[in-house]
Design brief:
By secondary structure, the protein is an alpha+beta fold. It has helices at 2-9, 19-25, 37-46, 62-79, 82-91, 158-178, 183-186, 214-221, and strands spanning 121-125, 136-143, 187-190, 204-210.
Length: 228
């Protein structure tokens, strides 16, 4: 019954829905339990140690998921792909001509090593964050460069994971600690396996911070805000 109702409303989903997404669409917001910091820690901590990706457990508020599906559908009608929209409207990056139609966008870079040059990445607030408790903010770090991933499942290699760890420490944790916070307790990151990414072709990582003020968020994002 639930699956049928979801099928009728979203006959052709704008992106691949998990079974948990479909169950979530049948809920009301008042029946939804937002992710807490401890819950997020449990989900993210499992990722490097299991054969399947528990990140599919991350869910949006039911009303946000419905709006996200509708927005994605309309955006694809206008821009063909979400990747085109992100490049054009959010990142303002101009891709190089593709060498093959099936390849994702590539960009001119200052340094081919991920995170090595500030012109080669951009930090934005997530326009469509997961359903989180109010003290948690969801950021996305977009890269012109590519992270090293396992070609089988699209998960990070140890090299790629190390590059992200260093960047997150220097950019987020250390910065919070300079303001008197506890960066190790206020920052987490994850990267969706390729199969779970709703925006493919541009490498990106998700950063979750808690208890951080607007001033620091503006510093990281250079004042860039979410979609109106």
């Amino acid at each position: 019954m639930v699956a049928s109702a979801v099928q009728d409303e979203f006959e052709i989903p704008a992106f691949e829905l998990t079974e948990k997404d479909r169950q979530n669409l049948a809920r009301k917001d008042e029946d939804f339990q937002p992710h807490t910091w401890e819950n997020l820690k449990q989900i993210i901590a499992k990722i490097p140690h299991q054969a399947t990706n528990d990140l599919e457990s991350l869910r949006r508020w039911p009303s946000d998921l419905k709006r996200y599906l509708q927005w994605t559908k309309l955006t694809k009608q206008k821009y063909t792909t979400i990747t085109n929209f992100i490049c054009t409207e959010r990142l303002r990056w101009t891709p190089l001509p593709p060498s093959h139609p099936s390849e994702g966008p590539t960009f001119p870079v200052e340094n081919s090593t991920p995170f090595a040059h500030p012109s080669d990445y951009k930090i934005l607030l997530n326009d469509w964050p997961y359903g989180l408790t109010t003290e948690i903010t969801h950021l996305v770090v977009w890269l012109k460069t590519r992270l090293a991933v396992d070609s089988t499942v699209g998960d990070l290699t140890p090299e790629g994971r190390g590059q992200i760890e260093r960047f997150v420490k220097e950019t987020f944790r250390d910065r919070i600690e300079r303001d008197g916070g506890r960066g190790g307790e206020q920052v987490m990151w994850f990267r969706n396996w390729t199969g779970l990414q709703s925006v493919r072709g541009i490498d990106h990582i998700h950063v979750l911070v808690r208890g951080v003020g607007e001033g620091l968020l503006d510093e990281w994002t250079v004042g860039r805000r979410v979609l109106p």
